[in-house]
Structures are given as structure tokens and as C-alpha cells.
Amino acid sequence: MYTQTGTPVTPALGPVPPSRNTTASPALCAWLPGLESLAPYAEDQLWLHDALLGPFSGDIVEYLTLARATGGPVLDLGSGAGRLTVPFARHGFTVEAVDRHTQSLKRLRAWADRIGPQVRGRITTTHADLARLRLRRRYQLTLLAGAMIAAIPPDARPGVLREIAAHLGGDGALALDYTAHDAAGLAEHPHRTWAFQVPRFDGVTEWVVARQVFDLATMSEQITYFIERSEKTRIRRSIATTDKWIVNQGDLLRELRAAGLRIADQRQQWLDERTHSVLLVCHPAE
């Protein structure tokens, strides 16, 4: 759960969903490092999925500013339900959204349909696994937003970056963000537990305990979500997991250079004393 400073602490919890009487503050789940990529494997996980992604929506402004500089078309890799794709289409950009979850792409199309045919007509959806990415056209802007680079296995990442670079326009850009961890901090605290309430507006109360396990030997991260939903007549419990990879900054920079990309802009924001988020903007090397 959170203290009032946003620091994670480990409560004395067994592998069961949290009690509804926990004192964790829902507002403080706004920057849970590494908890942003839960995939909606089932319909009842959508509220949690949106709650984890929602706090990151501020990056839309930065990415739209970049798109105005590069022009379109835009490639949104790991698009999910369209938190970037649909706003980009509303601003007049042609967007191809790629995701491995058909349910997410279905939600994306439904959202665009509700806005209108003009927006829907600017969007193409492609069902594909990023680790086996094969592109068919050139793009002026490619996005790996929401720390999606951490969802690509390290042995597949160089090939994915080469594929992206080969399909960027001459003055195009790749923009990506990720969570950078201090290795000493991970070694000292490889297990972390968070508790929070999921904001819902449908009469259901949902609480979650999220347990992060970092493995430096394999550079992997697993997050297990113990979920409790209180409905009118019953309480339902479920478990969901997310497997991700720890991004080594040095390795990533070498892979970008090997793919023929140069870093034009790098921004960092500290999340705590040992963790920061990184935004990279890359252009084809001259």
C-alpha cells in the first residue's frame, strides 16, 4: 500500500485479495512504477486496466506536439484500447494501431465509431505481437508509449527496433518511454507490494493488492494482481498477472544505435529516489 509520500511498503498480507477496510489511498496510485501494462485478458479486468493507464494520459500532449512536427502517418505500437490512437485521429492524423489483444482493438474501434466516421476512417487496426513485428509501409512517427518497450523480450528487441527504423521516413521519429530502475535498489528490494482502490462508477467496489517481483538474473519482472470486487449480492475474487522485462539503459541505447537510430531528445522524471521514467525521441541516423 502507499504511505502519504507515495512510498511503497510491504503490508503483512498473505496471497489473498485485500480487505475493503484497508487505508490505502486511491489517489496515490497515480504513478505506480511498472504497473502500467496490465493486459485486459478478460472483460472484468477493464476497469483495472484503465485505472493503471489513466495516470499516464498526460503524455498525449507531448506526443501530439511531436506528431505536429513530424506529420503522419503515425504508428501506435501496443495501442491498447486507443488512449493515443483515437485522440491522434481526432486531431487529423492517420494512425495504424497495433496490439496483440483483440479485445483492446475492439474497444478502440468502438470508441472511434462513437465519435464518428471521419475519425474512424483515419484508423487502421492490426492484430500482431510486437515481438514478431512486420510492417508494410513507412511512418513519420512511431510510438512505443506506456512503457511498451518493457513488454518486448530482450532477445527480440533489436529486431523490432531495426524493423521500426527501416519503416521510418527520412525525417521521421521513434518516441518511446520506459521505467529506469536502479540495480542496487532492485537487489535490495526485489519484492514490492501495493494496495489501492480502483475508481469505478458502476456500483461495484474494487480493491487490488499488486505484488511486484523483480529478477535481476533474468532481467524480468512479474506483477500479480489480487482483486476483490464487491457487488450487490456477492464478493468476487480473481488473480491476474503481467510479465515484463527490466530495461537496461545501456543495452537499449546500443540497440538503438545498431538499428540506425540516433537520440535527438531525452527527458527524465524521477519517480522516487531510485526510479525514474525516461522519454526518448530518436531519428534515423544521417
Automatic annotation (TrEMBL):
Q: Which UniProt keywords apply?
A: Methyltransferase, Transferase
Transmembrane stretches, start-end: none
Task: Decide whether keyword Iron is in the record.
Answer: no
The keyword Transferase is assigned to this record: yes
> Broadest EC class?
transferase
Note down the stretches annotated as region Disordered: 1-20
Q: What is this protein called?
A: Class I SAM-dependent methyltransferase
